[in-house]
Amino acid sequence: MLLEVKNIRISFKKETQKKIFGKERQEIIKGVSFFLEEGDCLGIIGESGSGKSTLGKSLVGLLPPNEGEIFLEGINLYGKKTRQEKEQLNHLKSVVFQDYISSVNSRFKVKDIINESLKILEKKESQKFDKKNKTLELLQSVGLNETFLERYPHELSGGQLQRVCIARAIATKPKFILLDEAVSSLDASIQTQVMNLLKELQKKFNFTYIFITHDLPSVTYMCNKVIFFNEGKIVEQVDSIYRLSNVETEYAQNLLNSILEIDIYENQ
Ligand SMILES: Nc1ncnc2c1ncn2[C@@H]1O[C@H](COP(=O)(O)OP(=O)(O)OP(=O)(O)O)[C@@H](O)[C@H]1O
Ligand SMILES: [Mg+2]
Description:
Strand content: 15-25%
Structural class: alpha/beta
CATH architecture: 3-Layer(aba) Sandwich
Radius of gyration: 19 Å
CATH topology: Rossmann fold
Distance between the termini: 43 Å
Helix content: 25-40%
Number of strands: 10
Order of helices and strands: EEEHEEHEHHHEHEHEEH
Number of helices: 8
Bound molecules: adenosine-5'-triphosphate, magnesium ion
Strand order of the largest sheet: 6-7-8-3-9-10
């Protein structure tokens, strides 16, 4: 098993009442459990504010749950780890954030952003390679050319910067990548190119993905499992994409219908 999530709960301090009721907290993730096998692609769909990004952050080691445990390749993400385990985890996972603008160093050029990942790969594979060529290769694989190498993040459009972040995420050849709304805002042809690339990598290296998205076509194209998420809980889990239309809960049915309606509207 690659990822095992055991009954996690996450709560934040309530901002408005913090001063008066010092300990009042709002639970955002309310007991979530699931697991992923290597090579799985899981889509997480849910309404805005339901806690998807919060869950995502905890899955990649950035937000310790208040309760419960998360295991990646058997290593407890928030437990005591040996140096070797820490390194293993570093090489294992990557993330493309929903808020990609703040996830890059604004003083780094595109080539430096990707170079950081390539240094990790060199360490992982204990070999040096031509980083300039690799950087260009990676950029091209997300539909960008060499003219982007010397540019700074503020000189890129949102979609271009997001693609740089995707290139950075795949550069380390991680086994597990979390993509939080990472492809939904790209235009159709680039979206297809990026998804095809992710699929290719999945075949080649048996990558495991989590796709947090509102975009149903990308889920049906990429994912074999789907979680419907609402108010911090898993409402329904579909373990075969072919059974997506047979969802049982009213929440999942309504969500699917509302997404389909928007898609039809947008494609008219
Ligand atoms: N650091 C934080 N401190 C306090 N509250 C937070 C924090 N991060 C998230 N929240 C709250 O947790 C809830 C869930 O937020 P989250 O970003 O996980 O939602 P989401 O499902 O990803 O939404 P969207 O689809 O809009 O991206 C929101 O009500 C948000 O205000
Ligand atoms: Mg989010």
